[in-house]
């Protein structure tokens, strides 16, 4: 359904820094994380960090891109012979569930939600561009096998991203796991229904 062009590369020196940043953010949030904290955890000097990143927020931006793209790659449904649409929808629903439970995203939403605001109201982030590219590729494949409604693939990809992004970021505010009819499984089923109706020919 999608190519391997975004396959996760081998670990680099940057990954050690991003791992350290991840640990710091999970422990205290972004605002309380310093370059000194990250450098200490990564076992490098602050000057080494300054040569690559000017501040904590740019490190966190790269961290978010690595985490979100890596998660997206890890949940792609297999090439199992099924038509494109059911595999695409399965991957989208699984992706929303995985993002909703991702510890880094949950921590940022809980203590530093302003970091996400630019990517919701102002500009498209690097990971969003990667997802749009993958979505458009899947949509074109669905057009070709006749299981996805033919339309402008870029517009369709952006529409799909808007749908799943809202379920990731705002879904937890609507979910009430004390009520099975309003629990996460029920909203996952609702998301599946929306996507099927949106994409069906």
Describe the structure.
With 201 residues, the chain is mainly α. It has a domain at 64-199: Tetracycline Repressor, domain 2. It is 68% helix and 0% strand. The chain contains eleven helices and no strands. Helix 1 packs across helix 2 (35-42), helix 1 (13-28) crosses helix 4 and helix 5 (84-100) packs parallel to helix 9. The longest helix has 20 residues, at 126-145. The chain starts with 12 loop residues before the first helix and ends with a helix. Pfam families: TetR_N. Residues 34-53 bind DNA. It comes from Actinomadura decatromicini. This is TetR/AcrR family transcriptional regulator.
Descriptors:
Tetracycline Repressor, domain 2; HTH_TetR; TetR/AcrR family transcriptional regulator; mainly alpha; transcription cis-regulatory region binding; Homeodomain-like_sf; disordered N terminus; globular; 11 helices; HTH-type_TetR-like_transc_reg; about 200 residues
What is the CATH level 1 assignment of the domain at 64-199?
Answer: Mainly Alpha
Task: Please tell me what the overall shape is.
Answer: globular
Strand residue percentage: under 5%
- The sequence of SSEs as H and E is HHHHHHHHHHH
CATH topology call of the domain at 64-199: Tetracycline Repressor, domain 2
Tell me the structural class.
mainly alpha
Which ranges are low-confidence, i.e. pLDDT below 50, for 5 or more consecutive residues? 1-8
Strand segment tally: 0
Work out the helicity level.
55-70%
Could you tell me the mean pLDDT? 92
Using the 3D structure, state the CATH architecture of the domain at 64-199. Answer: Orthogonal Bundle
Let me know the CATH homologous superfamily of the domain at 64-199.
Tetracycline Repressor, domain 2
Number of continuous helical runs: 11
How would a textbook summarize the main sheet? none
Our measurement of the CA-to-CA distance between the termini, rounded to an integer number of angstroms, reads 18 Å
What Rg, in angstroms, do the CA atoms define? 18 Å
Domain HTH tetR-type: 11-71
Organism: Actinomadura decatromicini
DNA-binding region: 34-53
Keywords: DNA-binding
């Amino acid at each position: 359904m999608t190519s391997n062009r975004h396959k996760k590369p081998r670990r680099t020196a940057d990954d050690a820094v991003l791992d350290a940043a991840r640990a710091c953010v999970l422990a205290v949030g972004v605002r309380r994380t310093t370059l000194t904290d990250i450098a200490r955890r990564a076992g490098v000097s602050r000057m080494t960090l300054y040569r690559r990143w000017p501040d904590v927020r740019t490190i966190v931006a790269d961290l978010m891109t690595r985490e979100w793209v890596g998660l997206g790659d890890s949940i792609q449904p297999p090439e199992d012979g099924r038509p494109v649409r059911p595999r695409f929808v399965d991957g989208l629903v699984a992706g929303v569930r995985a993002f909703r439970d991702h510890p880094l995203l949950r921590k940022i939403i809980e203590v530093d939600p302003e970091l996400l605001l630019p990517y919701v109201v102002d500009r498209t982030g690097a990971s969003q561009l990667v997802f749009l590219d993958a979505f458009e590729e899947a949509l074109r494949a669905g057009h070709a096998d006749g299981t996805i409604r033919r339309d402008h693939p870029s517009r369709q990809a952006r529409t799909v991203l808007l749908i799943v992004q809202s379920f990731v970021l705002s879904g937890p505010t609507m979910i009430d796991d004390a009520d099975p009819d309003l629990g996460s499984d029920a909203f996952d089923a609702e998301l599946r229904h929306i996507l099927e109706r949106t994409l069906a020919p």
